[in-house]
Amino acid sequence: MVARARVITRRQMLILVAALLGLLVLALRWNALQQPPPTTHDLFPYGELRVGIDASYPPFANTGPDGLYGLEVDLAVALAERLGIPVRFVNLGYDGLYDALRVDQVDVLISMLLIDPARRDDVLYTRPYFNAGLVLVSRADSGINSMDALPGRALAYEFGSPADAEARRWLRRVLPFETRPYELGRYALDAVRLEQADAALVDAITAQLYLNEHPDWDATLHYVTDTWYAAATRADRGPTWEAINQALEALAQDGTLDRIIDRWL
Amino acid sequence: MLARLTPLWYTVRPHWRWPIRFLIALAVISALAPAPPRAPLGPPQVVETVKPHVCTHTRLIDEVEDWKIQRTLQMVREMGADTIVEFFPWAYIEIAEDVYSWASADRLVNYARNQGLHIIARMGLVPHWARRDVPEEYATLNTLPPESYDDFAEFVALFAERYAGVINHIIIWNEPNLAFEWGYQQVDPAGYAALLQAVYARAHAANPEVVILAAPLAPTLEPPGSAHGLNDLLYLEALYEAGAAPYFDALAVHTYGFTEPPEAEPGFDRLNFRRAELLREIMERHGDAAKAVYITETGWNDHPRWTKAVRPSQRAAYTVDALRLAETEWPWLEKMCLWAFRYPVDTLNYPDHFTLVTVDFQPKPIYYAVQAYARGWQQTESLWLPAPAS
Fold first, then answer.
1. Which of A95, A156, A216, B272 is the most exposed place for a label (fewest CB within 10 A)?
2. Which residues in chain A have their CB less than 8 angstroms from residue B315's CB?
3. Mean pLDDT value of segment B323-345
4. pTM of this prediction?
């Protein structure tokens, strides 16, 4: 007599998988339900939001006679208000930022940090709060809304800058366009405004500051690359990260973040 | 085995079989990764340069792939620099007491020789075992207790002997006037003098041609008693007072331009390129005029937002002007090494704006400016357009 192999039907398989998933979710939730939510003291044991910042990057953070100022300083103050605790800044050089976080001198870093995949074992990054990538700036009626529209046209950029490197990358991808390197990013924008080039490739901060100085110029911006800034906490302080991330999300939702950015850019 | 699996396969419902086949195929395809590019040495190369003081600091010891080391060194040669400064961490080589792993260092040295490049070797980074009884919470990678000075000296002597004739310049430590570089302890010129003394005779016994360079000091204005470090000029004075002069053959120097042009006047309370002249004055005052100076780190930064940076156009112009100034006005200077040629990975902040070449080997315009200078090519065209006329 030949033994018949047991066949698992698709329906049985689905029931089994669903049951296992249900058990897993229940186990995780049960664990969470058993623990009371963390108090502010648990999240910020020093009773304040200790912010590590390198105040040498205007307009994001800089030092003046009255102390620190800038977009990230205002953002940290708003975050602390939302969390209901005072803020204290620890001004550090970039080289010492992550070390200060590691040895618990600060709770959070807010300092033009790019999300660095190599640090993800030690650091949790929040949602990003600003994109400083390269933007293509052109006159609103030019019809240029991407690098693909450049062939046959003239692109201005700052000599030696990341825009210079990006322009050369694109020259290998699309049909030729004229390159116009200038000594400064603002000259590249001048060239477009004065109709000596069709578009300029500059970083978003330079573009925004320039447009603020020329409010009558009808120009459009299109991101070509993304350079997102995010805050960072220690990886082993998940609840603290969650609280800061939620506060940052709330600032974004209620328009506070945009108002802070508009104040400085 | 296959015979056993076959009946089992037929127990699987037909509509599950294709997804399983797909997953197996995916696993097989992903296992077929292309072999890394090979980087055979090839015929020996010669550096073509008319400015033998041009040099650059590379960051190759952390590079994994051979071809990246080779490509970096090819580009250094093509730029017209005949010398590199490279870090050879003690901790990477003497992995346990008296247990050595020379493979990475040998590989790097072989590629550099093949490209016709000289190497100035920087020594430092303490192995775990050499930190002795220093508690873990107080120890860093730069913590070297005095009872381990002889271990370090023994390592330097072995290194000097192994690479004699290939590497004849060795820098002992890095920026010992910074607390961070001195194991987060109060900086100690006398302690550093003792380290030089421990190393000097043994290194010379191992390689009579070796040139021992006293460590470059970090350009800093930190006052005496600061927890962070000590003003480099004060530190060098203290080093001479501690009797270090007989224990080094030349001085390594770090000097950066920050936001000032190369010709800017130096001063005790100013950090700029010509600060090197103030260090030189101290050497001469202490009777060390016969010793050469090697600038092993210098340059400008062109980060778009950092307050200590300049614009890329200024960086290119300042760097070439600084090379000219050093060539014509500093007869005591042997080499001027630009920080840094390329990093293995981006740091994602201002340090990336010190490099001459991107991580993916794209030369930045400053690379071509230095190349034109080093190889004596005429730069006929302006590098950028005039400001648009309104």
1. A216
2. 160
3. 98
4. 0.86
